[in-house]
Each structure stands twice: as C-alpha cells, then as structure tokens.
Design a protein that fits this description.
527 residues; F-box domain-containing protein; 4 domains; single chain; LRR_dom_sf; F-box-like_dom_sf; F-box_dom; alpha/beta
Amino acid sequence: MSLKASFQDLPLELVNHIFIYLAANPQDVCAARLTCSSWAAIGVDHLLHVVPLVFKYDRLARLSEIAKHPRIPRTVRSLFYQADQYYPRLPLESCTACERGYVCLPRQRLYDYEEQREDFADSPDPVRNPQLCKTDLKRIQRKDPARRILRSNDRSEQTYHRYFFLAADDMHLIASDIDVYHLTHLFSACPNLDDVTIKVGRSEDHQRYPRMLDLAFEGIVQPPSQISISPRGVQPVEALARVTEKTGRLLKRLTLVGLTHELLEGNYVVLDKVRNLVRSLHELEIRFESSEDELTSSLSNMYSVLMRGELRKLLAAATELRVLKLDFKVIDTGFHPELLAIADLSQLTPASAWAHLRELHLGSFAVEEDDLCRLINRQHPTLERVSLANVDLHYGSWPSVFTRFAQLTPRLQHVRLRGKFVTFDDGVPPDFDFDCEDGDLRPSNFLRDAVETYIVHGGDYPDVDALLARDVTAASALLHSGENLGKGTATQILDWWLMHDRSEDYESAVRFWKAVASDNDMTSHTV
C-alpha cells in the first residue's frame, strides 16, 4: 500500500517521462498502468496509437480534441474510420410485430419497405418534413383502427424524435465538409499517421456500435431482407483523398473494407483524387462486397465497372506497392462459385509489373491458367508471399497451375491456399477444398500442406489420393473421439468428402463415412 502511495506522489512530468521511456514495448506500458489508479489514467495517453472513429458528427468532433492534446498526436500512427449506414435490430418476429403494437414509421430515409400498404404510398419524408409525417401517421391510424400501428402517442413521439435526429445528423454529415475539417486537423497534428482503415458496413452488430443506435431505433419495425445499403464507401474515401491532398500527407497503408462498385463509378474528379491517394502506398487492401438484397444489380454493376478497367487504372497508379490484397465477397451468403466470374483476373491487374511487390493476396476471383501463371511470372523477381482463396479456374487444371508455380517462383518463401479451388472444364479433375478462410474444420489438411510445400520447395508432385485418404481418416478420427463438433461441422466435413469423391450416391457416402468413423480404416470400404 505504501509503495502505491509513493507512486501516486510522483510529479506528473516524471510519470510521463517514465511512460515515454517504456513506450517502445506496449507490454511494459500495460504493466506500468497496473501500478496504481493515477498511473492507469496517465498511461492511456501513451497506449493510444490507433484512433477509432464512428461516422457520426460527435465522434468526428473528437478528432479535433485529439489533435489539440499535448501528447497523443505524436503517438498516433493509424486511423480506423468506421463509416456505417444505420439499421434497426431485425428480430425474426418483426413481420408480425405491428400486430403486437410496436411502432412502425412509414417510408424511412435510411431504409424503406418494398411492399408498402397503399396508405403509405404518399407518406411524406420524415427527414424533410417531420410534422407532416406525424400527421400522416395519425391519419392512417384513424383510417384503419383495427391495425394498431402506434402503441401510444407518447412512445411514438419519443421513438420518432430519436430516429429523426439520428437520420438528420447522418444526412447533414454526408452533405457537408465537417468530416474533412476534423480529419484535416487530425492529420496536421499527427506527423506519424500513415495507416488508414475505412470500413463500411451495417450496424446490426450492436456490440460494436454506440448505445445511441439502440435508442434511436427502439421500437421501429422493419421486415427482414428488405434493406438497401447502396451506395457505400464513396464519401469517406473521397474525404480521405481530399484531406491527404490538402495536408500533403503520403499514406503508406490503406485498407478499404465493405466497398461496392460505387467507388469506381464516381466522377473523374473523385477517381483522380483516389488515384493520387494510392500513389505513395506500400500496402493496399480492398474488399469489395455486395448485399443479398441487391445481389443481381450490384454484381451487374461491378462487372460493368471492371470491364471498363477502372480498378486496373487504380492499381496501376499504385507503383510503390509492397503488399496487395484484393477480395470480392458476398455479404451474408457465404461462398458462391457461380458469382466468381465478376472478378476476372485479366480485368483486375495492370499490364506492367509492380517493381517492389513482395506479397500478393487474391480472393474470390475467376482466372485462366495462363493468366494466373503470367501474373506470378511477371512478379517473380520480387514476390515472396502468395495467398489465394476461392478461385474459379475456367481453362486449365490445378495440378498444372501448382506445377508451374513451383517452377516460376524461386524467391517464394510462403504460399497460403484457402477455400475452394474449382475447375469448370468438363473432365478436368480435380477440384480442391483447402478449408474455409476463417479457420480449419479438421485437425489437419495433409493435401493442402503438401501442395503449399511443393510450390515453395519443389520436388515431386503430391499424391492427391493418398493425402485425401489421410485427411478423411484424420477427420473421421476426430468425429469418433467423441468431441462435440456440432452437427454443422460434421455436415461440412461430409460435404467436403463428397466433393472430392465426386459421388452422386449420397446415402452410400453416408454409410461409407460411418464405417470409416467406426474403425478409421479406409482401405476395407468402398462407395
């Protein structure tokens, strides 16, 4: 107790100098913060090297406060820019919630009903004219008293105002330059800030977002799967480009998550600013996503943008890249091989090589064997790490691709293969399933490990059948051990085996799987 008291009596300047001395090792800073409550409070400033940000006015204003802080700006190295569109919680019973008396607002600004009642067709916009909207709600309630849309006037009044101010705040921010103003203050005050992540997504995960969202959307009913989230990502990326141009800052790392085709469909002024933004980058990661509710239109638009070569032009401007990661994913639908053709590799990469590229990650794309090998061969003087996930091979075979990789990449130190590697040419086996990107379903994957080792170190091509047999035996042993894997995991393992076995007789495969699980011996059983 006396030792803690002596620490608390130390001058503030001395405590700060101690934390500055320990700053090289964050673990030491964390240990020092455990000394006493006053040191814990002071140490927060010395741990802050990432600025989290939610796309709201009050959070943006916080950036200017950080910029004015006497110690924080020199430690800030990265910015996490969370740009969200806001949605209510979507319970399964929401379709019948109106009948139980929950509040329902017509024609919302941030989301709307695709199947509206005829009474709602001419409802006024709640953001532009809230008074007319409330009057319209009362008119509907009087017209159809059997369908209780409002639980009570007091509750609807409170809920409506929460929603209205949140929506108005969000629209005001998008329509103004307030974000550029505060971001400029932050970049001007933080000389080491060169790493930015912009993530655009839904705020249905209420564990990550402010409590104000729960308050704003409390009681608002929205039928599931009727949400539109386009456009996304254009405004925050444009704002970042304007800020870096205004402050003269050269970013080194940029991560863009949850973008749609809208970014590449912007006007030429915006695209020029974004190209200038990526010119100095050493690391660039872009994850394009499309939502289930607008899947057809978004995929069509993405294909059109790629055909025009807008992404190729953007990547060609990033001449200093050391690390490039590109992913094309579909939100809430998992992996869909039939959708991979939207991201043809020949439409993504520029004709010239990146002179300094060391690491390349490509996920969820389609390619021909010659195009993929040509890209790897073009980069082989500098390429050290390659990661591929969920690839659709239209012409060629995967054994041929892996063999050519092993011959083309003398400097390669690490290869990572994940997801499904599908061949759509008839009669060209095999397809491969190297587990999902998020983690292994089985205790081992002998085939994947052998292929990765073969590409890096050469030697003889792996015996696919023997390695598959070892994988299935290991997986069956895991099931036979009695561990509680869950029905979903067991089903995925079985589906994986069926894919490699190419058997259409599902029942026979199930009997075979049970036999393997009983004695872990594949050789005595046939499908």
